[in-house]
Design brief:
- By secondary structure, chain A is α/β, with parallel strands linked by helices.
- Chain A folds into two domains: about 10-185, 3-Layer(aba) Sandwich (Rossmann fold); about 185-320, 2-Layer Sandwich (Hypothetical Protein Tm841, Chain: A,domain 3), CATH 3.30.1180.20.
- Helix content of chain A is about 30%, strand content about 25%.
- In chain A, the strands form three sheets. Chain A has a six-stranded mixed β-sheet, sandwiched between helices. A six-stranded mixed β-sheet of chain A has the order 9-8-7-12-10-11.
- In chain A, strand 1 and strand 2 (about 35-40) form a beta hairpin.
- In chain A, helix 6 (about 230-245) crosses helix 7 (about 265-285).
- The model of chain A has no long low-confidence stretch (mean pLDDT about 95).
- Chain B is built from nine helices and no strands.
- Chain B has a single domain, classed as DhaL domain (Serine Threonine Protein Phosphatase 5, Tetratricopeptide repeat), CATH 1.25.40.
- Classes of the chains: A alpha/beta, B mainly alpha.
């Protein structure tokens, strides 16, 4: 294992400290309990928006703290959900009295820890609503699994719900917009290589040189199945087809197309995937109205990507275009 | 012999030793069907428990378990933190303020711990989770406590042996809860890390009483 670290046990501490130093104009970092808040939090009269999860997905979530997006991000250990003793004080820190929305990716650990924190916050008189993100079509949503995972769609939920909170929507309205985004976005990912969790020291699963893993999550956990390596167009088709059929995209619809890198794939390759995805959408008669291409929700140094498609309506487009000023997303400012 | 606070502190200390010793093994179990963090999280959690026990020495077994519950909930993260936190909290509540615990009280606490895990995680037997260690353990403890010759050590041994067998029996199961459930059929052939760490915890309870 070759990594730019000092000690596997201090990876998150030192990384978050560095993040705070680099973006001191945007955020405040609390070292213990560990969380990141928007510099001017709590913003008077505004609903607070908080997300969190395991570290290793950077820039998610701390990279999205700032005007027009999150008020707080709560990082856990690498690939491990944060704990209620972090989530609760972060919730209190961004509550202006208008309540706080928790954006939670659907993993057993995240759900349990955020549930506990929400109960504790409510006991302290803070109204909390939870938006559960579960956009991963690789997982069968049935009684026999923990349900679909929250993956690429999380970034879109955070941006759009953040814009709704910024324009002054109520607690219930912000949560409803978040749910609306979640129910209109689907994602599927692929891994070309596994990633190595610093404290584990070896790759998180085995993948031969000529194999890829389809239906990958963002925690280095294996996906749906292994197949032999294919070219970019072939892989793009494999990822996009289940996304579009699950979402039921019809001719004439407008979409946001999000091609996300897993951390170890160059941007040039992501654009090759994007190119093919646009062709497939055009064949279906759908129009790509907005795009996002880059490393926005990653799995350490994993090579691979995910494709997310969000069905747009006028309101979602307007909220997507609204100004945002964070470390990782910035426009209109 | 009854179980007192010295046993409880010894138990938690031996849990911490077991997690440190088995940290890499638990990470390896978690690697193919999870995300390689279970050993790291359990080790970190129980080291924090040791620090808390040294800071504020408990006076009853129940207090020791409650301190453990709060520490695991706040330090472990993932699913294991809230699940083990709930288990220790329910067991602590069952012990109450008692200075000593008898076989029946011990079995009741183990059943309460199992019920807490089921309530929080909503998993059933056969889902390939820690429930598959805790349910046989709780049932074996009840049976051992009901035996007229039963003593606390016999109850603990019965629980630990049943948990170990239950953990081994998760090997062929297809996961239906937790992160391993994403793998579907491919989760078969691997031991559930949560069931494995549960067996370590219950084995430590025997060591502390022996």
């Amino acid at each position: 294992m070759k990594k730019l670290i000092n000690d596997p046990r201090s990876v998150v501490d030192e990384s978050v400290e560095g993040f705070g130093l680099a973006h001191a104009d945007l955020v405040t970092v609390s070292a213990d309990p560990k969380y990141v808040t928007r510099k001017d939090a709590p913003v008077s009269g505004k609903v607070g928006l908080l997300s969190g999860g395991g570290s290793g997905h950077e820039p998610l979530h701390a990279g999205y703290v700032g005007r027009g997006m999150l008020d707080a991000a709560v990082p856990g250990a690498v690939f491990t959900s944060p704990t209620p003793d972090q989530i609760l004080p972060a919730t209190l820190a961004v509550n202006s009295g208008a309540g706080v929305v928790h954006i939670v990716k659907n993993y057993t650990g995240d759900v349990l820890n955020f549930e506990t924190a929400a109960e504790l916050a409510q006991a302290e008189g803070v109204e909390v609503r939870t938006v559960l993100v579960n956009d991963d079509v690789a997982v069968e949503d049935s009684l026999y699994t923990a349900g679909r995972r929250g993956v690429g769609g999380t970034v879109l939920v955070e941006k759009i719900a953040g814009a709704a909170a910024e324009r002054g929507d109520s607690l219930d309205a912000v949560a409803a917009i978040g749910d609306h985004v979640n129910s209109n976005v689907r994602t599927m990912g692929v891994a070309l290589t596994a990633c190595t969790v610093p404290h584990a020291g070896s790759p998180s699963f085995d993948l031969a040189e000529d194999e890829i893993e389809i239906g990958i999550g963002i925690h280095g956990e294996p996906g749906r199945h292994k197949i032999p390596m294919e070219n970019a167009d072939g892989i793009t088709d494999r990822l996009l087809e289940p996304v579009l059929s699950d979402l039921g995209i019809a001719s004439g619809e407008k979409v946001l197309l999000f091609v996300n890198g897993m951390g170890g794939t160059p941007l040039s390759e992501l654009y090759i995937v994007y190119r093919r995805a646009v062709q497939v959408l055009a064949e279906r008669g759908a129009t790509v109205e907005r795009s996002l291409v880059g490393n926005y929700i990653t799995a350490l140094e994993m090579q691979g990507c995910s494709i997310s498609v969000l069905r747009l309506d006028d309101e979602l487009t307007q909220l997507w275009d609204a100004p945002v000023h964070t470390a990782a997303l910035r426009w209109g400012v | 012999m009854l179980l007192d606070v010295k046993w409880a502190v010894r138990w938690l200390t031996m849990c911490a030793e077991a997690m440190a010793e088995n940290r890499v093994w638990l990470i390896e179990l978690d690697r193919p069907i999870g995300d390689s963090d279970h050993g790291e999280n359990m080790d970190r959690g129980f080291q924090a428990v040791l620090e808390k026990l040294a800071e504020t020495p408990p006076e009853t077994p129940g207090a020791a378990l409650k301190l453990t519950a709060m520490t695991l909930m706040s330090k472990v993260g993932g699913a294991a933190g809230p699940l083990y936190g709930t288990a220790f909290l329910r067991a602590a509540t069952a012990f109450g303020d008692a200075l000593e615990v008898d076989p029946a009280g011990l079995a009741t606490a183990l059943v309460a711990a199992r019920d807490g895990i089921v309530a929080r995680g909503k998993a059933e037997s056969g889902d390939k989770t820690m429930v598959d260690a805790w349910t046989p353990a709780a049932e074996a403890a009840q049976a051992a406590a009901a035996d007229a010759t039963g003593n606390v050590l016999a109850v603990l041994v019965a629980a630990a042996e049943a948990a170990e067998a239950g953990a081994v029996a998760t090997d062929p199961l297809v996961a239906r809860k937790g992160r391993a459930s994403y793998l579907g059929e491919r989760s078969a052939g691997h031991r559930d890390p949560g069931a494995a760490s549960s067996a370590l915890i219950l084995r430590a309870a025997v060591g502390a009483a022996a």
